[in-house]
Amino acid sequence: xxxxxxxxxxxxxxxxxxxxxxxxxxxxxxxxxxxxxxxxxxxxxxxxxxxxxxxxxxxxxxxxxxxxxxxxxxxxxxxxxxxxxxxxxxxxxxxxxxxxxxxxxxxxxxxxxxxxxxxxxxxxxxxxxxxxxxxxxxxxxxxxxxxxxxxxxxxxxxxxxxxxxxxxxxxxxxxxxxxxxxxxxxxxxxxxxxxxxxxxxxxxxxx
Length: 207
Ligand SMILES: [Cu+2]
Fold this sequence. Notes:
Layout: H1 11-20, H2 29-39, H3 50-61, E1 65-66, E2 75-76, H4 78-87, H5 96-99, E3 110-111, E4 116-118, E5 133-136, E6 139-147, E7 156-159, E8 162-165, E9 173-181, E10 184-189, H6 195-198, E11 201-206
Parallel strand pairs: 1-2, 3-5, 4-6, 5-11
Antiparallel strand pairs: 6-9, 7-8, 7-10, 10-11
The protein binds copper (II) ion (CU).
């Protein structure tokens, strides 16, 4: 069967791709080639909808990452594609260099000091706050969130009739909300996209 226009495959293509690949990526290549070999040249994939994947790549990633096949312009996406191709069909967790590629940021409950609770965004860009939970004394409380990453976040609080959302910030920006809080349990979260669902939320206990 001849592959559809725009889709290259076969051993020669793989050798060419390997020759162009930076040495740092070489370790990823056997797995990526295996995935290609298993996937053949068709658009069928055992676990993913490739058409939907391309549409989402162009809509959400294409402004920053080049992928010739998708016709997008920006910085090179080969590394991203190689990683995703390697792990997409696999279960379990990354091992070796990949396991430690994203540094884990210390995460401990935030405690209010002089009316301010500091809950920062994960500086590596993960959808996490640096505190999984927080506590404060009743009264005027400011939640201060600094975001050193390039992923846009805000800080928001909800509960007990309080609903406040701070400004969206990135690259070192600070987002704050200030509210008069009675004793009780509140939820702090990031309201950007689906960050809250992804894990950017926690409980604020006020006593
Ligand atoms: Cu966020």
